[in-house]
């Protein structure tokens, strides 16, 4: 009888500790930046878990801006993405392959994507995520 009471007390203690642990913050909310534009339909099944940028040195001494981002799929679906590049004056810098790129995601899958600026004068970017257009 005493052993059963100890087990019940231990179980209650574990339940209380479990209730006290806060769930992790939603990662999409943590990456709420003006460089990231997500359509509401996509935000339902995809969470952006990383959004990083760095400069990549080139042989001529210039450096290109490169971004990497990761998405985690909450359900199966298709995603279209593109990056718009900007110079210091806020003007769009055109590059090759400006259209949206389509990818398929599976539930629970995390995928990583990389894009490199078309010119060294690029100083900023905006990543666009949406559902693919048919």
Distance between the termini: 67 Å
Structural category is alpha+beta
Low-confidence stretches: 13-32
Largest sheet: 5 strands, mixed
**Multimeric status of the protein:** single chain
Which band does the percent of strand residues land in?
Answer: 35-45%
Mean pLDDT: 80
- Series of H and E elements: HHEHEEEEEEE
Radius of gyration: 22 Å
> Helix tally?
3
Total E-strand runs: 8
Query: What share of residues is helical?
Result: 10-25%
Large-scale geometry? globular
Structure description:
There is one protein chain. With 134 residues, this protein is an alpha+beta fold. Helices cover 22% and strands 43% of the residues. It contains 3 helices and 8 strands, in the order ααβαβββββββ. The chain has helices spanning 2-20, 27-30, 40-45, and strands spanning 36-38, 46-57, 63-73, 77-86, 92-93, 101-105, 110-116, 124-130. The strands form 2 sheets. Strands 1, 4, 5, 6 and 8 form a 5-stranded mixed β-sheet that branches. It has a 3-stranded antiparallel β-sheet with strand order 2-3-7. Strand 4 and strand 5 form a beta hairpin. It is globular. Mean pLDDT is 80; it is low at 13-32.
Structural features:
134 residues; alpha+beta; 5-stranded mixed beta sheet; 3-stranded antiparallel beta sheet; 22% helix; 43% strand; globular
Quick rundown:
The chain contains three helices and eight strands.
Show the helix and strand layout.
Blueprint: H1 2-20, H2 27-30, E1 36-38, H3 40-45, E2 46-57, E3 63-73, E4 77-86, E5 92-93, E6 101-105, E7 110-116, E8 124-130
Parallel strand pairs: 1-8
Antiparallel strand pairs: 2-3, 3-7, 4-5, 4-6, 4-8
